[in-house]
Amino acid sequence: MTPPAPSIRSASASTGSGCVFDLATVEGEIAELEQQSIEPGFWDDSRVAQDVMRSLGDLRGRASEWRRLTDAATELADLAALADGDADLAQEVAAATEPLQLDVDALELASTLGGPYDGSNAIMVVHSGEGGIDAQDWASMLTRMYVRWAERRGMKAEVLDTTDGEEAGIKNATVEIRGSRAYGYAKAEAGSHRLVRLSPFDSAHRRHTAFALVEVLPELDGDHDIAINDDEVRMDAYRASGAGGQHVNKTSSAVRLTHLPTGIVVTCQNERSQMQNRESAMKILRARLLERRMREEEQERTRIKGEHTAAGFGNRIRSYVLQPYTQVTDHRTNLSVGDVQAVLDGEIDPFIDAYLHQQLGQDGDA
Questions:
Q1: Does 179 reside within a domain?
Q2: Is 241 helix (H, G, I), strand (E, B) or coil?
Q3: Residue 249 lies in a domain
């Protein structure tokens, strides 16, 4: 029996995943942004203009991909109708159905990322936790994993700041992920990550457990109501530490910003100039101020509802076991993958997709 081709329905039709892709609405948003982009003075505020153009490009890409998938599904359905009794043709339809279904599912999932900051770039901060040198090495491994993940998805990743560990690895790293809905996807990684392995830093080669904490912040291109006055920020310049060559060691290009009203401190030292480091540090500061506001709003909603929730960043979300067996398990979705090395090389989309589908289901039940 020939498997049915995936069904693709747009414009107010729901799919199997519970998602609705309203092509007419997306096309209307495209027309609105296109009109906005040709109005006089559009580029007077470059930040807002860039935000609009990025949103326009994202919407155009989604609409184009939906049309491509619709055409492909129609062709496959026609082919399936001709395959009755033709084993070779039925096999061809079956082989083409699975990858097309995966593309449909991916686009449907992307369409659910409609939160206020889901379309933003992301700032990921990795902190070493309990576990000594192993934890610092683990933080370095996670940082590499996220850089590789971004590259696999066609996004750009830039390490804005790192603090080296005493003997190996890093104490923390700040990574900027730039791409379509970067924050919408990356937010699934926020929490505590646990590593179990035979420690390369233990002379007895015993099994050790190490932890690292991942924070995910939305990057703000425009002001977004996060206003920072010049007199609220103290800037200190200092010489960067760690690898980087003579330039890093001989110039005070590293920047530390202190937001006086809140006491939030951010640093950046990976760029070559003090000005570039200050710009990057301001991105991080705006993101941290937004995170602070989001937390306060969530706490107020929780107080009003009378709910009790555990502290989010302290929750262990995933375990990576290299010994005595190899397995990565997400504790929120119970999804497990046996190929640990592939995961550490950036293949984390199955975990992200499972988490986002879970959240979509919970939102639907609310």
A1: yes
A2: coil
A3: no
Is 142 found in the same domain as 164?
A: yes
Q: Cis before residue 200, ω within 30 degrees of 0?
A: no
Residues constituting the chain: 366
Q: Which of 44, 20, 249, 212 is nearest to 132 (CA)?
A: 212
Same-domain check for residues 51 and 92? yes
Provide the domain limits for residue 144. Answer: 122-219+340-365
Are 64 and 151 in the same domain? no
Burial bucket for residue 94 (CB in 10 Å: 0-12, 13-18, 19+):
middle
The predicted-structure confidence for 276-329, as pLDDT tens digits, reads as follows 899 899 989 999 999 898 888 877 776 776 654 443 345 799 999 998 899 999
Say which residues have a Cβ less than 8 Å from residue 347's Cβ, sequence separation at least 6: 149, 152, 339
R_g of the chain computed on alpha carbons: 23
DSSP secondary structure letter of residue 20? B
Return the structure tokens found at 284. Answer: 């991080």
What is the CATH classification number for the domain harbouring 95?
1.20.58
Q: What is this structure's pTM?
A: 0.75
Give the ranges where the chain is alpha helix by DSSP (H).
23-37, 46-82, 87-111, 132-152, 182-186, 245-250, 274-305, 340-344, 349-365
The pLDDT tens digits of the residues spanning 6-17 come to 555 443 333 333
Answer yes or no: are the C-beta atoms of 126 and 173 closer than 8 Å. yes
Burial call 106-137: b when 16+ CB within 10 Å, e when fewer: ebbbbbbbeeebbbbbbbbbbbbbebbbbbbb
pLDDT computed for residue 115 by the predictor? 80
Q: Judge if 208 and 65 occupy the same domain.
A: no
d(CA 64, CA 227): 36
pLDDT at 249 over 60: no
Q: Is residue 296 part of a domain?
A: no
* 143 vs 193: CA distance, rounded Å: 12
Task: Give the separation between CA 222 and CA 323, rounded to whole angstroms.
Answer: 46
CA contacts within 13 A on the Cβ side of 227: 3
In a domain, 83, yes or no: yes
